[in-house]
Amino acid sequence: MEDRHIVAIDLGSCKTALAVAKINEDDIQVIYYKEIPSAGIRNSYVFNSMKASKPIKELIDDAEHELNIRITQAVIGMPKYRIRQETNQAQLSDLNPEECITDEDVNCLKTAALETYPLENPRSDELFGAVAQSFSTGEDFQFVESDIIGMPSEVLEGNFKIFIGKKSALHAIDVAFNNLKVGIAKKYFTPDTLAKAVLTSSEMENGVALIDFGGGVTSVSVYYGNIMRHYASIPFGGASVTSDIKTECLISDSLAENIKLAFGACMPDKLQNLSEKIIQINSGNNSPNKQLPVKYLSEIITYRVKEIMEAIMYEIEQSGFADNLRNGIVLTGGGANLTNCANYIKELSGYNVRTGYPKHLFSAIGCEGVYETDAAVTIGLILAAKADKIRDCILGENTVKVGGTVTFVEEDSTSATEEDTQDTAVESGENAGKDVSDPELWDPGEIETKPKEPVKKEKKEKDKTPKPSRTITWLKTLFDDIKKENA
């Protein structure tokens, strides 16, 4: 079977991520993953298509250059906020009783449920998706999808949850990609695709609440009996935590974000020796240094996380399945990286809590961050697109068009060019090698970079210099931001 490639783009409130995966039957290999700050997106909604398209274009250009391909289409995640859920029923009454119910019959029933739902305002509302709750044959009731398939019956009935969002939100995404001349293969309602990337089948069967602690939106999906029973979201997330740090400490947004990444933690009384440390920021201009105790930083973060999680716990109670969550809570998204966040939610809720990383259903080499909680939505999109047999999303110089189809030709291993190499920064001075948890005053002037030696043109292989770790990247960004504060 020929390889095909899936391109998935996660339009987050704070970061836009792009992944390219090579699919060969059941084998999934992620060959590219990168995320950069978003623009023109608020609470997961694209409000400015022109601004939103710039990070997308940057990622597409980078992926095309690195992989020597041309991206023609991508699968996209829909907004997660301002979604309401309703119920609807559908029926197929002309089935052959001598034949068994098939996947196709179930999909037709789901389509019928979507098409027959009466939107109150079709000019502004859009159906984002439907999730089957139960099926019946007219005589037998309360079957799940896996049980109903294979049963003989003249009638097939289904009860569905219908998710409704704003049509303008999807239109803004269309405009952004039309401007880039990149097609949209399919838009996915990401709460359900995210679950398949993070949750185990036993968790979805026995009851679990999946909390996606994102940048601009925090959402919760409640599963029981392998079915999503409830979904809700609130317009607060990691960006709200960053904003609180910025306001309380009178520093820039970017510096507040990097301090959060390096030192962010909940439960200040359980930080042990770290709570006694102090982060000092040279304010410059003859002003006294700003001093930020790590314990005070943790108090700021804890208060905001408490507010967010109390709202999410309310939604879990509203679902009607609060007493059925035997597997407790799975926490994913960028906010899950806050130190002690999972323990704090356990203390607030009484449920067992684990951090949800993407399941190892794929391989990836040299794709930094693809196994982190931040990448879970993107991986979910890839898994959904694979299951739906989305056609090839790329063209490349190593492809040949034959009869309207695209055949990939094995590429010569020596075809890498000088452009495949990347410059790296070398740290020097007393700061080199310091751990991120070291709270002593760091002098931004002690960080310097050296240009990499020119690559000889005759050497036709990729530069194998390892990329800096996330810790070094955070520190360097932190120093750069402090320099800006001093300016």
Structural class: alpha/beta
Q: Tell me the β content.
A: 25-35%
Overall helicity: 25-40%
Q: Name the average pLDDT.
A: 84
CATH structural fold name of the domain at 84-168:
Dna Ligase, domain 1
Task: Describe this protein's structure.
It is a single chain. The chain is an alpha/beta fold and 487 residues long. The protein has twelve helices and 22 strands. It has a domain of 85 residues: 2-Layer Sandwich (Dna Ligase, domain 1), CATH 3.30.1490. About 15% of the residues have low confidence.
Summarize the structure.
This protein has 487 residues and is of the alpha/beta class.
Keywords:
single chain, 487 residues, alpha/beta, Dna Ligase, domain 1, 6-stranded mixed β-sheet
Q: Would you spell out the secondary-structure blueprint of this structure?
A:
Elements: E1 4-11, E2 15-24, E3 27-37, E4 41-42, E5 45-46, H1 49-67, E6 69-71, E7 73-77, E8 84-92, H2 103-116, E9 125-136, H3 145-148, E10 156-166, H4 167-180, E11 183-188, H5 190-198, H6 201-206, E12 208-213, E13 218-224, E14 227-234, H7 238-249, H8 253-263, E15 278-281, E16 290-293, H9 294-319, E17 329-332, H10 341-349, E18 353-355, E19 363-364, H11 376-387, E20 394-396, E21 399-402, E22 405-408, H12 470-486
Helix pairs in contact: 1-4, 5-11, 7-8, 7-9, 8-12, 9-10
